[in-house]
Amino acid sequence: MYDKLIYSLIQEFRPELSSKEIEKYSSELQKLSSKFDQLHTRYVCENKLGLLFDARYQINGKGESYIIKDYQCYFVKSLEEILKNNPQISLREAIDSMKKVVDVDYKHAINSMTEIIGPDYIPDIVSNCKVIDIDNIITHHYEDVRDYESDNHYYSDGNDIWY
Residue 26 is part of which domain span? Predict the structure, then answer.
C-alpha cells in the first residue's frame, strides 16, 4: 500500500511524467523511505520506545486513503509539500532534498521534516494513549481522542488518525 501511495503522490504533482519515469522515481523514493524506516526503528530501540499507530493518509486531503505508520506520514507529507509548493523543481531535485533530510539521523530527519510541513501540522490529538503489549505485539487503544478537523488533512474518527 505504501508503494502505491508514493506512486500516486508523484502522479498527482508531476503528471507530465510517463508511467516508466514514475515507476523509476517511485522505486527510488521507496528505498529512501526504507532508510527512514530503519532510522526510526533504530531510534525506537535505542530509546526504548514502542509507540506506533496506523494512520490514514490522503494525498492533498482528498481521494483514496492509504493506511501507513504514523512516522511514515512525516516522510510522505514532506515529499508532498516539496512537490506541491515547488512545481518548478524536478522530481530529481525533490528526491535529492529528501536524501539530505534522511541522510543524517532520525532526530535530524524528523526536525527537518517538521520544518518542511510546519509544526502546526502535527497536532497533539492523542490525549490519553494506552499501549498494550501482548506477545511482543504492540498495539494502541485510544481512550480519549480529541477530534480535530481542518483542511490540512487530519482529523480523528475515534479509532484512527487521518492525515
Answer: 2-162
